[in-house]
Amino acid sequence: MTAALLLAAGCSSSGNGSDEDQGGSAGSTAAGATGVAGSTAGSGGHATGASGNGGATSGAGGASAGAGGTGAGGTGGAQTVGTCSPPADIYSPIQKLSLTGCVDPNDPTKLTARAVTYEVNSPLWSDGADKTRAFVLPAGGKIHVDATTGKWVFPVGSVLIKNFLFDNKFVETRLFMHVDDTTWVGYGYEWNGQSADKQTDANIVGIGGDEVKFNTGSRTVDWFYPSRADCMSCHNDVAGDSLGPSNMQMYRVNQGQTVNQLDQFEQMGLFDAAPAKPATDQVLVAPYTTSLGSPPAGATLDQKARSYLQANCAHCHQPNDGNNQSVFPNFDLRFTTAFKDIGVCNTPVTQGMVPGSTSNTIFKPGDPMSSVMLTRMTEPYTDQNGDGRMPKIGTHVVDAQGVSLIGDWITSIKSCP
Ligand code: HEC
Ligand code: HEC
User: Fold this and answer.
1) DSSP state of 221
2) Residue-level pLDDT, tens digit, the chain, 417 residues
3) Do the beta carbons of residue 394 and residue 388 sit within 8 Å?
4) CB distance 249 to 120 below 8 Å
5) Of 11, 131, 367, 399, which residue has the fewest beta carbons closer than 10 angstroms?
6) Does 252 contact ligand 2 (Cβ within 6 A)?
7) Measured between alpha carbons, how far is 206 from 6 in angstroms, rounded to an integer?
8) Across-strand partners of 107?
């Protein structure tokens, strides 16, 4: 038998199985719930989808592997739509976003009804792109929240989704998939329909990434599509693979909502056990005002700066730093590490000076312009492996608000502890 589904036009996403598991409320928060799911997809589709998902690598999402014609009586021309799960062969991902099952195949700008959208407290800076975030759990899968770290551990078969938009035009959709106990894989999809055209689909980004000028219709934006290896340099094992979902990022009341996101997801039955609520000082704040919200009243400069560094730097700069192979084992920008232990204050650089600066100190108390940490954030982008620009990958545009925040923070600290 094959787990692949044939999808006749109009059937929409087939993953109705998980709607059941999530008690229907999943659909209600899905950004693009189209209303078609649950209509005529049919119980046959449901059953196959569910078993495919459970089997993680069993091929449910398997690229274009033959559907074998056993699906819902496929008609000529209908294309196989996956079940939004990792491909059987990670080197053969589904080429078109519309066929992944993670989006509505008839309108890939809308997520599958199975997707649960979420927001974070402190977003990664991506050149000012607007973002939407969601996850799709495999049938019956639950999220486990680690009681010590507050990290959200996703079951094998999960797919995490992030969309990047400028001027309401999609530039990229990223899928991050939990393949097996030790493996995650990330794929970027490059959207069509620049300028005035309607956006109908996105194609998989080549394994080495891509660099484009994206025309939103009102302006041109330089956009770098990270390679699959780039995904893993930030989404590394030491940092915990998935980077946003954790109590510190997810404990928040989203705009237009009254219930905390953690409580909302608990009510939806998404966790294997009710997570304990994090202490206030364990939760990130918005570093500055974005479309996701503003820093809470009373948020300190220290909280804002440390929240920023957690979201933008800590996945590479923490002990045993994943892909960086311990170049700087003591350089630790995680929010939860006390300032005296983050290894920057009056610490000499190991990687040399930044062009145009004579400072050789990572963090010079009271003196942002002599702090390599800050000057690295303002370095112009040159190429993918730029001359010292931080974050190392994934941005062309200096984050002026981030720079001003980190500058103020350095100014405010007058001496090393
Ligand atoms: C420069 C570091 C960096 C690179 C490169 C990167 N990401 Fe991320 N990504 C992050 C951070 C940090 C977050 C969490 C913060 C947020 O959501 O704004 C994140 C969030 C995500 C999410 C939401 C789930 C999660 O883990 O938080 C997805 C999906 C995702 N990234 C996919 C990808 C894929 C696929 C690639 C490669 C094509 C990629 N990312 C490359 C840093 C990066
Ligand atoms: C994708 C991984 C990655 C991210 C994200 C990242 N860095 Fe780095 N960082 C590196 C690597 C690799 C090096 C060493 C290579 C180099 O010097 O460019 C480095 C070097 C540095 C250094 C030089 C340290 C020394 O001893 O000389 C500083 C300071 C720094 N990063 C600060 C930051 C800050 C601040 C952020 C967030 C705004 C950040 N980094 C985000 C990977 C990263």
Assistant:
1) E
2) 333 333 333 333 333 333 333 333 333 333 333 333 333 333 333 333 333 333 333 333 333 333 333 333 334 456 899 999 999 999 999 999 999 999 999 999 999 999 999 999 999 999 999 999 999 999 999 999 999 999 999 999 999 999 999 999 999 999 999 999 999 999 999 999 988 788 999 999 999 999 999 999 999 999 999 999 999 989 998 889 999 999 999 999 998 999 999 999 999 999 999 999 999 889 999 999 998 889 999 999 999 999 999 999 999 898 875 555 556 667 899 999 999 999 999 999 988 888 878 899 999 999 999 999 999 999 877 654 456 888 878 788 999 999 999 999 999 999 999
3) no
4) yes
5) 367
6) no
7) 26
8) 104
Encoded tokens for 258: 């009254």
Which residue has tokens 């702090």?
371
Q: Residues lining ligand 1, judged by CB closer than 6 Å?
A: 120, 123-124, 133, 160-162, 174-176, 186-188, 226, 230-231, 234-235, 242-245, 311, 315, 391, 393-394
Look up residue 181 and give its amino acid: D
Dihedral in degrees, nearest 10, Cα atoms 40, 43, 49, 55: 170
| φ and ψ at residue 162, rounded to 5 degrees | -135, 130
Give 207 Cα–ligand 2 centroid separation in angstroms: 24
Q: How far is the CA of 85 from the centre of ligand 1 (A)?
A: 18
Domain-by-domain residue ranges, the chain?
Answer: 3-30+108-267
DSSP string covering 146-186, please?
-TTT-BEEPPTT-EEEEEEEETTEEEEEEEEEEEETTEEEE
229 lines ligand 2 (CB under 6 A): no
Q: Are strands 152-153 and 107-111 parallel, antiparallel or unpaired?
A: unpaired
Is residue 328 lining ligand 2, measured as CB closer than 6 Å? yes
Residue 340: other Cβ atoms inside 10 A: 9
- Tell me, in angstroms, the distance from the centre of ligand 1 to residue 289's CA: 20
**Phi and psi, residue 310, nearest 5°:** -60, -50
